[in-house]
Please model this.
Amino acid sequence: MITLYAHGSPNPHKISIALEELGLLYESKIINIWEGEQFSPEFTTLNPNAKVPVIVDHETGYTLYESNAILLYLAEKTGKLFPTDAQQRWKGVQLLFFQAASIGAMFGQRAHFSLFAPEKPTYAVARYLKEGDRLTTVLETLLTEREYFLDEYSIVDIAHFGWLWCSTHQGFAIDAYPNLKNWFDRIAARPAVQKGVTVPLELPDFTPFRNAA
Ligand SMILES: N[C@@H](CCC(=O)N[C@@H](CS)C(=O)NCC(=O)O)C(=O)O
Model:
């Protein structure tokens, strides 16, 4: 049994999608990040960095944070959704680091300054919109003539989908990137993905932020 500490947000959705894909027994607990529950002493004992997702695997006794580390852990635990071939495996590790360090970090800043910041600093908004577009072009290129980031569907797709699902809901364009859009629709059609993005909560309604932007 695994406990997933999460909220309706992109990094936790990666883990609920993976748990659904892998058919693992789990429960989810809501940590309301809009109300600061991630800073409670109970939660920072689990993740000193005060962010979701976190998992506790009651079978092994492991507590883990950082979504892509959790994805790797779940793939290794089950022997699924990550290749055994060395070249594919290292390509996968590289893309998981790229996703966390670039896509997640920069898409997060883009949303922060474009949507959530009470004042919208022109320089910061422009910087992260430009970087978001540049990174989306990188994804478009990586998916040239490919169904998935690796030769088969894997946690690399799940890691990227979490943020693409969120950023499209936030109003950032995907239609202008045909390879990415086809990949997105392919992943979104999977039943485990459709379930995963509702656990423990769906994304919030970003319309008020978009209208105010
Ligand atoms: N690199 C971390 C990022 C985790 C993260 O930023 N989680 C967000 C939700 S998607 C969060 O907990 N935000 C609350 C906060 O920043 O206070 C990961 O991949 O798990």
Remarks:
- The beta strands are 2-6, 26-30, 54-57, 62-65.
- The chain has a mean pLDDT of 97.
- The first strand starts at residue 2 and ends at 6.
